[in-house]
Automatic annotation (TrEMBL):
One of its GO terms (molecular function) is hydrolase activity. Pfam families: Isochorismatase. Residues 8-184 form the Isochorismatase-like domain. Keywords: Hydrolase. Gene3D superfamilies: Isochorismatase-like (3.40.50.850). It comes from Natrinema thermotolerans. This is Cysteine hydrolase.
């Protein structure tokens, strides 16, 4: 699959210590396992001049104090608190000059963030999506991208999950409903 570098962004979803490091409160070995293939993808993308966007799931400690229904701390316990080591992107995937970082407070990187406007301002249409967790933030971000008329391309070998079944579900759902699923080796930025 040939993608035009100037019309494409690689979106790296939530590759943070809280999810990818063994000391993280929501550590999933499947998330740690995709660090190396994502690093390889980012190297190729940057060499071609493709924009890289990192998302960071960040929660102020009081975020859900007045919640009526949506409370991630009820679901997952406290995690990736604002200013914490857990909220930082893993050292193996350093943010470089020219990369863009989006802080989000929900599963969807488009919800109440500047991501859509930032992409539109740069004429970006195609989103190569990788990161973690497959059936949570990756799935919701990919679906939201499709609803906004971006082309979400989910990279099957660069998406982490708690369980393999979760990853398979998310990729099947994406392919069926809103996007495309490809191995990272099939992506060329040229």
């Amino acid at each position: 699959m040939q993608l035009e570098p100037e019309r494409t962004a690689v979106v790296v979803v939530d590759m943070q210590n809280g999810f990818c490091h063994p000391d993280g409160s929501l550590y999933a070995p499947g998330s740690e396992a995709v660090i190396e293939p994502i690093a390889d993808l980012l190297k190729r993308a940057r060499e071609a001049g493709t924009q890289v966007v990192f998302t960071r799931d960040v929660h102020p400690p009081e975020q859900f104090d007045d919640a009526h229904y949506y409370d991630e701390f009820d679901q997952w316990g406290e995690h990736v608190l604002e200013g914490s080591w857990e909220a930082e992107i893993v050292d193996e995937l350093p943010v470089e000059d020219g990369d863009h970082v989006i802080e989000k407070h929900t599963y969807d990187a488009f919800y109440n963030t500047e991501l859509e406007g930032w992409l539109n301002a740069r004429g970006i249409d195609d989103l190569v999506i990788c990161g973690t967790l497959a059936n949570v933030c990756v799935l919701h971000t990919g679906g939201s991208a499709g609803l906004r008329d971006f082309r979400p391309i989910m990279l099957e070998d660069c998406i982490g999950a708690i369980e393999d079944d979760h990853r398979e579900y998310a990729l099947d759902h994406a392919a069926w409903l809103f996007g495309e699923v490809e191995p990272s080796a099939e992506i060329a930025f040229a």
